[in-house]
Amino acid sequence: MSEQPLHLRSFPKAILHIDGDAFFASCEQARNPKLKGRPVITGKERGIVASMSYEAKALGITRAMRLRDAQALCPALVVLPSDYETYSILSKRMFNIVRRYTPDVEEYSIDECFADITGLQRPLHMPYEDIAEKIKHELDIELGFTFSIGLAPSKVLAKLGSKWKKPSGLTSIPGRHIHHYLKEFSVEKVWGIGAQTTAYLNKHGIKTALEYAQKKEEWIREYLTKPHIEIWQELNGYSVIPLDTAVKTSYQSIQKIKTFSPASNNKSFVFAQLSKNIENACMKARRYKLGAEGAIVFLRTQEFKDRGVEIKFSRQTNFSHDIIGLTKSAFEDIFNPNILYRSTGVVLFKLKEIDDSQMDLFGEAIRAERMTKVYESIDAIRDKYGKHTLFLGSSFAANKFAQHLGERGDLPERRGFLLKGETTRKRLGIPVFLGQIS
Amino acid sequence: MGKTYFDKIRDFYNKRRRMPSYSEIMMLVGFKSKNAVYRLVEKLVSEGLVSKDRQGRLIPSKRFGEIPMIGEIEAGWPSPAEEELLDTMTLDEFLIQNKEATYMITVKGDSMKDAGILPNDIVLVERKNEAKDGEIVIAEVDGNWTMKYFRKRGKEIYLEAANSKFKKIFPKEDLKIAAVVKAVIRKYS
C-alpha cells in the first residue's frame, strides 16, 4: 500500500518554502571571512544561543542553550551579539529576490518564506525545478550564504521539502513521489502538528507522516479538527492553506521582552525594566493606531522560570502611563525580593484599531483626546532624537545604564563605528563587510 | 516677469554658491522695500522653489537646481508637479544597480591609490562570484578581504594592486571572489 502514489499530478500547484540556513550566524559569517568554517553563535546579549553556525551545530550546540554550557562544549566558540539591524536588512533582501519571480510571497518569519510559482514555467520557459534552482542561486550569491528550498504542491509538503536536505538543499516533491518522502518523516515533524496531536495520533498507531496521509478521509473527519484535516489534505497534495501575502499592517498582539545583566532583585530596578518595555510596546501600538484591552506582564528568573499576571483594562488604551499604573499591583504580587531576575516582558493583547468615537459620561473621551496629543508629541520627539531621550520616570532606572553591564553589553561591530554623516540614531541601510581589509 | 526675479536669484546663487539676503534680493530685482521681497520669497516658498531655515534665511530647495531642466517658462511660475520629477533619479538609483546584492566596505590601506581609492573611502560593491578582466574585485585571501584589480590573461588569473609597492597575487587554489566594486564614496564633511 505504501508504494501507491498519493497524488497523480506532479504540480497542480507549485509552492516553494525557502529557508535560510543558520540565518543569523550565516549573516555574520558571510560578511567576515575570518568566521568562515568556525563555530559561531549569536545571542551574546541574551545569554543564550539564538542561532548557531553548522560548525557549532556539529559540536552539539543547540538553540536556546545557555552560553556557558555552549562555551563548555566548545572553548573556541565565537560568541557574537545579535545585530538585528543587519539581519533585518538581509531578510528583506531575501524576500525581494524571491519577488523578482512572483508577487505571491508570504514572509513567514525573518528567515523563511513561502512563494507560489504556479503557472510560471511557460513565461519563464523552464520547469519548476529550474525556477527554484535559479532563485536559490541568486539568494546564495547575492546574500553570500546558502538557502534550502522545498518545491511541492502544497505549503505543508514544501516545508518538509526544505528540511529534507539541509544546508543548501533543493528538494522537489512532485505529487507522484509524495509517498516516498512522507514515509521518512515521523508525524511530529509535520508543520502544524504539535506534541498533543502527535501523542493522540501515536495512540491510533500513526507514527509516520505517510501513515497519517493514508488514513481514510472519513476517519480524519471523525477524529480530528479542521486544522488537522487541512494538513491531511495538504499532505495528500491538495493545496488548501492559502499563502498570506499581505504585508503586516496590523498586529493581534505586541510583545516586548528585554533581558538585562547582571540579574537583579532590586525591586525598583526590575520594575523600571518592565516600565521601559511597556513604554516601547505602547509606542509600537500607537504607531499602528491600535489600542489594547489587556496585557500580560511577566518576570523571568535567573533560573529561566516565568511568573506572569494577566490584566484586563476597563477601556481600550495605548497610553504607557495608564498601563504602567494598572500593572503596579500585579507586579507587587509576583515580585519576590529573594529571587534574582534576568528579564521582564509585556504582551499587549486584544489589539483593535483605536476608536475615538465612543462617548461617555465622565469626560474620559476629552481626557483621552488630550493625552493623545501629549503622546503624539512624545512619539515625535522619540522618533527624531531617539527612544532614550524621553521616557517616564518609572523607566528611569532602566534607561540610566546600558541594558547589559560587562561583556554581555558588547555592541554588534556595526554599531561600534559610524561612517561620516551617520549618527547613532541613523545608519546607512546597506550591510557592511567586516574583518580585515587590505 | 516672475521668471526674471527667480532667474536673478538663481544666477546670484550660481555665482556666489550661496543664497542672497533680503536686502541683496531687493537690490537684485530692484524692489524698493523688504516687504516686497518678503512677498516674493513667500511666493517662491509656496512654489517649492526655495525654503527658509530656522532664522528665516533662504535655502535652495530640491527643485531649485532642477529648474533649468524644465526649459523656458512662458507664463508665471511652474507648479511643482510630480511629473516634472519623473525623469530624475535619486543618488541611490545612480550609485546602486542591484539593490539586494549591494554592500559597503571601508577601505584600509593604499594598495588601490592609483585607481583613486584611498584609505577611509567607502566602496559600494555588488556580490558576485565571477568577474571580468580589469574590474576591481573584493576577494577572500587567507581569511581576509582584499581589494585589487582582477586580471585574466588567457587561463592565468591574478590580482593586481594599483600601487607599485604591492606585488601581484597569484592564487594557489581557486580564487574566491566575493564582490565587484561599483562605486567609491568619499565624504568630506
Automatic annotation (TrEMBL), chain A:
GO MF: damaged DNA binding; DNA-directed DNA polymerase activity
Pfam families on file: IMS, IMS_C
Protein name, as recorded: UmuC domain-containing protein
Organism: Candidatus Giovannonibacteria bacterium RIFCSPHIGHO2_02_43_16
Family listed: Belongs to the DNA polymerase type-Y family.
Cellular component aspect of the GO annotation: cytosol
Annotated UmuC domain residues: 15-194
InterPro entries xrefs: DNA/RNA_pol_sf (IPR043502), DNA_pol_Y-fam_little_finger (IPR017961), DNA_polymerase-Y (IPR050116), DNApol_IV (IPR022880), Rev_trsase/Diguanyl_cyclase (IPR043128), UmuC (IPR001126)
Stored PROSITE patterns: UMUC
From TrEMBL, chain B:
Organism: Candidatus Giovannonibacteria bacterium RIFCSPHIGHO2_02_43_16
Family the entry assigns: Belongs to the peptidase S24 family.
Record bears the keyword Cell inner membrane: no
Name of this protein: Repressor LexA
A molecular function GO annotation: serine-type endopeptidase activity
A Pfam family the protein falls into: Peptidase_S24
Keyword annotations of the record: Autocatalytic cleavage, DNA damage, DNA repair, DNA replication, DNA-binding, Hydrolase, Repressor, SOS response, Transcription, Transcription regulation
PANTHER family assigned: LEXA REPRESSOR, LEXA REPRESSOR-RELATED
UniProt GO BP: DNA repair; DNA replication; negative regulation of DNA-templated transcription; SOS response
Record has Lipid biosynthesis as a keyword: no
Domain named Peptidase S24/S26A/S26B/S26C: residues: 68-181
InterPro entries: LexA, LexA-like, LexA/Signal_pep-like_sf, LexA_repressor, Peptidase_S24_LexA, Peptidase_S24_S26A/B/C, WH-like_DNA-bd_sf, WH_DNA-bd_sf
